[in-house]
Amino acid sequence: MAVPVAFFAVFFAYPVTAIVARGLKADGTWHLGRIGDVLAQSDVRQVLWFTTWQALASTALTLLIALPGAYVFARFDFPGKQVLRAVITVPFVLPTVVVGTAFMALVGRGGLLDELWGLRLDTTVWAILLAHVFFNYAVVVRTVGGLWSQLDPRQEEAARMLGASRFAAWRTVTLPALGPAVAAAALMVFLFTFTSFGVVQILGGPTFSTLEVEIYRQTSEIFDLSTAAVLTMIQFVAVGAILALHAWTVRRRETALRLVDASLTARRPRGAGQWVLLGGVVATVAVLLLLPLAVLVQRSFGGAGLGYYRALTLDDGECSWSRRSRRSATRCGTRSPPPPSPC
């Protein structure tokens, strides 16, 4: 235990303690009354409320959209399943700044929706919620779908044989078994969205601020270290409580069920309803996950083709020479200046 404890102490506990001490300790005296002063501020309470509210809304929306996908990946066997499973994981491993930029290219000023229909969602809470669903879709599909694929379907079939309807059998047999997995996935999504920074910073603009964003603003713009320290303590306590609850749900999930091999539960879709469900999940993945990435890739070419990518291999001297050449051509009255350099 010595190595992980030492790593935790040096790279986590010490920085947090130093931040709190710098904000709340002066002349060797702790000013803990500052905690009540900060919490009494209306703008701080608004930040706390929005942080919690948007995290709850993001979690509920993610579960609503991703649970059908969890069922499809758990119970259906169809061509391209493994490729599609890999595709839905891509958004989760992207930096949050890239996710925010992708949605700006889709729903922001001059984005795809703005160009086609004049529809803009940037600086609205809807852009934040959709970006959070984009980012956390794989969390629900992997966590819930992984357990769902190992539940023995014969238990639900036995309930049907005893006279239960399809919905009653699912509600009384499958749903209680899935409960710990759904709770674990919901807690992880809530944790990720509660501590959201890049997505809110880019898509929310100055209108919306979470705890992460407010700590950054108080530290780098206002230089109010005491307020930043109090908000850091609040976030630290909240994250610790969420992780403890998540650990409890994971232990419950691991000890309460008898599972079967996942390869024995998946089958080809049967009937029009199941094919429609599969098509709906594929369409959701295409629109919600692939479209923002496709727009981001398309915008990366701009009007210079591969020019911006070639610029990545140029050194600073070449870029500076290219910029000087373009400015000189413009100053000399060239009627048709050379095209913009990707530098």
Please give a structural write-up:
This protein is mainly alpha-helical and 343 residues long. The protein folds into 3 domains: 1-31, no CATH class; 35-301, MetI-like (MetI-like fold), CATH 1.10.3720.10; 308-343, no CATH class. It has helices at residues 2-24, 33-39, 42-75, 81-93, 96-107, 112-117, 125-148, 153-161, 166-194, 198-204, 211-222, 225-255, 271-301, 307-311, 316-331, and strands spanning 25-26, 29-30. Strands 1-2 form a two-stranded antiparallel ribbon. A hairpin with a 2-residue loop joins strand 1 and strand 2. Helix 3 packs across helix 9 (166-194) and helix 5 crosses helix 13. It is globular.
* CATH overall fold name of the largest domain: MetI-like fold
- Percentage of β-strand residues: under 5%
CATH architecture of the largest domain: Orthogonal Bundle
Q: What is the helix/strand order?
A: HEEHHHHHHHHHHHHHH
Mean pLDDT: 83
**Level of helix content?**
over 70%
Work out the number of β strands: 2
Largest sheet: 2 strands, antiparallel
Biggest β-sheet: strands ordered side by side in the sheet: 1-2
Structural class: mainly alpha
Principal-axes geometry comes out as globular
* Global Rg: 25 Å
How many structural domains are formed by the residues? 3
Poorly predicted regions are: 328-338
**Distance between the amino and carboxyl termini:** 50 Å
Q: Mind telling me the CATH class of the largest domain?
A: Mainly Alpha
In DSSP terms, counting alpha (H) and pi (I) runs of 4 or more, how many helices?
15
CATH superfamily membership of the largest domain: MetI-like
